[in-house]
Design a protein that fits this description.
alpha+beta; 6 helices; 4-stranded mixed beta sheet
């Protein structure tokens, strides 16, 4: 998303534009983000052996975006990973560092046959794109759990 002056939108701005209110459910959040994203979002849990080192993976097709999450992770962790992928969608990220070398080879050839336009997974490099998507995730999780105290530093966030 770009702001009115053409600059890249901040995580705070894209979340504020969603007008989430005081408390929402995860299903409501999916619908709201899908409306802002401009296409449906489907969340699928898959066996973690399919994407062993990935906590979340966004596959974008022309008519739908799919988020793959490891089934063995806790619900809280899967929701946070989905919110991180929502951050990439809301911020219109084209990539987050190149995941191709780390993706199972099936995504490289099956993806193009299945109409996948974009695959984003968390980069091994903690760059500005990843930090912005993660900030969106924290802001979205606060809408899901408004009574939790806000954490202001990276060290404390490691314990979530």
């Amino acid at each position: 998303m770009k702001s009115a002056d053409g600059e890249r939108a901040t995580p705070e701005a894209v979340v504020a534009a969603l007008n989430l209110g005081n408390r929402i459910t995860f299903d409501q959040l999916i619908a709201i983000v899908a409306a802002a994203h401009g296409k449906p979002i489907v969340i699928k849990e898959i066996d973690s052996s399919a994407i062993p080192t990935v906590t979340g993976l966004w596959l974008e097709k022309d008519s739908v975006s799919i988020i793959l999450l490891p089934a063995g992770d806790s619900q809280l962790h899967r929701e946070h990973a989905a919110c991180h992928e929502f951050g990439h969608m809301l911020l219109n990220h084209d990539g987050c560092g190149s995941p191709e070398p780390f993706m199972p080879s099936m995504f490289k050839h099956v993806g193009s046959r299945m109409g996948i336009r974009r695959i984003l997974a968390r980069s091994l490099d903690w760059n500005d794109t990843e930090r912005d998507a993660e900030r969106v995730a924290y802001l979205l999780v606060r809408a899901l759990r408004p009574n939790e105290p806000e954490i202001h530093n990276d060290f404390e966030r490691t314990f979530l």
